[in-house]
Structure formats: structure tokens, C-alpha cells
Amino acid sequence: MMNIIYLRRFKDLRTLSLSGNPIAEEEDYKMFICAYLPDLVYLDFRRIDDHMKELAEIKHQYGIDELKQRENLSQAQLDDERAQREELEEHKAAFVERLNGSFLFDSMYAEDVEGNKLAHLPGVSELLQAYKDKFVIICLNIFEYGLKQQEMRKVELDTFNECVQEAIQENREQGKRRIAKFEEAHLLSLNAIRDESEVTNLEMKVAEHSKDITELFDMLMTLEMQLVEQLEETINTFERNIMDLVALFIENVQSLMAQCRDLENHHHEKLLEISINTLEKILKGELDEDLPYDVRALFVDKDTIVNAVGTSHDLHLLKIDNREDELVTRTNSWCSHLVDAIHKDEIMRNRRRVKEIHQYVDHVQNELDNLECSEIID
Predict the structure, then answer these.
(1) Is 145 exposed, middle or buried (0-12, 13-18, 19+ CB in 10 A)?
(2) Rounded to an integer, what is the distance from CA 221 to the centroid of its chain?
(3) Which domains are delineated in the chain?
(4) Which of 48, 85, 206, 217 could form a disulfide with 361 if both were Cys (CB 3.0 to 4.6 A apart)?
(5) The model's pTM
(6) Nearest CA to 156 among 247, 92, 243, 248?
(7) What CA–CA distance (Å, rounded) separates 188 from 329?
């Protein structure tokens, strides 16, 4: 019977037939289904009356209330997860995902064995916290700047698309007006040709209307060429603007990433200084603090400790460099693909339009040719 609860997820379920299913033999069968599927209208080909629904709700009220509470919690969790996914996608579109916190800093230490060992040294904990606080502030600056720049790129793209659509629509309307005017004359010319009995006059009218068709073709192609030139200028302007926005974004992000490297270099110097001082105290037997065994193992000589601090430093710089390279590469790739797609879309639009013009002109020309042949035969 509890498997019936699974059907609650189908919000538009109104008709259910379980006739012949062993569950239908259960004593509380109908009451249970009416209680747990309250939106059901028909059960086993019979309409459920309101009185039955009321009795079922009263009988199973405690179980339903408990179930609704679980469902609400589950739905809230699903909504929260969906909101987080959507938010992450927005951040990815701005190329600054996971920079709104300590993720990058934490990733620097996630695989840093030596750095985690050195964190046990006297004074390093405070130094590390100060480093992290400043580092996260820079990451937040990158994040907020990235979202603002994404909005600017979106506005630029939306404005461009609006301009393109307006230009295409205006051009189409001009073409439609010309075609409508032509078709009025086209019908009159065809009727006049049908009514003409003299061969000489017939040929003259056919020639005149062929000229009209050619003029229509030239006019439509001229309109299309004007649109191509207009859109080419619009696309070139957009391309310059979007590339300038991307270049500015990358330049400023690289400047902020350089600040992260400066912080890392400063931290490295301080950590190295503390490590060497600690080594000297250990060698002199003046170190009061108890260090874990694996940390003391680093302090056999100066070269060992310098290498440990250097390894930690190199790993941190690599993480910063990789995140910067990823951001720059993805941003440039997005810009390149966007511009390429816009150019390709315009080429395809032009080809479709030229094909439409040729098909229409061929159609009206065939009408004229077919009529001319039938009139000559007659």
C-alpha cells in the first residue's frame, strides 16, 4: 500500500485503475488511496465522491500531515539545490565561479603536504589567517567585478541583437510592400495577356512584364545588399565593443591575480623566516613548543626546510596561475566563438534570403512563361 505514495509526485494524475491488482483486495484500499491521492477524480472507473474524500482525510490525517512535512522538507531541499545549480551556472557564465569565498585559497592547501605541516610552527597560524583574509578579499573583488562585467557584456549582446532584428524587420517590410505592389500589377498583367488575341501585342506585353519581374528581382537584391552592408557595420561595431570589454576584463583580473601572487610571495618570505628561526632554536635546544614528529622531521638542516617551504610556495603559485589561465582561456574562447557564430549566422541568413528571392522570382517568371506558352498554343 505504501507504494501508492510514489504516485503523489504526478501532480496531474486524475484517473487511476488498480482493478485486478492484489492491492485492491486490501481492507483499507479505497480510503488509503483517497487520502494519499486527494486530487484523484476516478478510481477503478468510478468517480470518487466528496464524502469519501472527507472520511479518508480524517482517518489518515496524522499520516498525511507527517508525509506532507517530509515532502515539504524534500521539496525545499530540491529547490535549494536547483537554486545553487542555477547560481553556479550564472557564475560560470561570468567566468568567476567559486571565487566568492575561500575555495581558491583552500585548494592551494588541499594538496600541500609541507604547507600543512609548517602550519604547526609558532606564529604561523596567525600569519596564515591574515594571509587567507586578504587573499579572500581579492577573490571577492574578482568575483564581484566579474559579475558586473558579465552584465555589461549581456547588455551589449542584447542591444546588438535588438539592432539586428530591427534592421532585418525593417528591410523585410520594405520588401513586402514592394512585392505587394508588384503582385497587384502582376495579376493585371496576367489577365491582360490572357485577354490578348494579337500575337504581336501578346509578345510585347510578355516582354514588358518580364522586364517588371527583372526589376523586382534587382530591387529585392538591392534591398538585401543594403541590409548586408548595414549588418556588417553593426557586427563589426559589436565585435570591437565586445572584444574591448573582454580585454578590459582580462586585464583587470590579471592585475588582481598579481595581487594574489604578491600576497603569496610575502607569505612565503615570512614563513621562510619563521622556519629558519625555528630551525636555529631546535639546533640550539631553545624551542619551547612541542612539534609533531612529521614536522620535526623537516628540521634536519637548512636545505631541507628551505626546500619544504619552496615546494609549498611553488604549489600555491601554480594554483593561482592555473586559475588565472583558465579564466583568460575561457573568456577569450567565449568571445571568439560568439563572434564566429554571429558571422556564420549572418552568412546563413543572407543565403536563405537570396534563395527566397530567387524562388519567388522564378515562381512568378514560370507563371508568365506557362501562360505565354498556353496563349501561343491557343
Answers:
(1) middle
(2) 37
(3) 1-94 (3.80.10.10), 102-376 (no CATH)
(4) 217
(5) 0.80
(6) 243
(7) 63
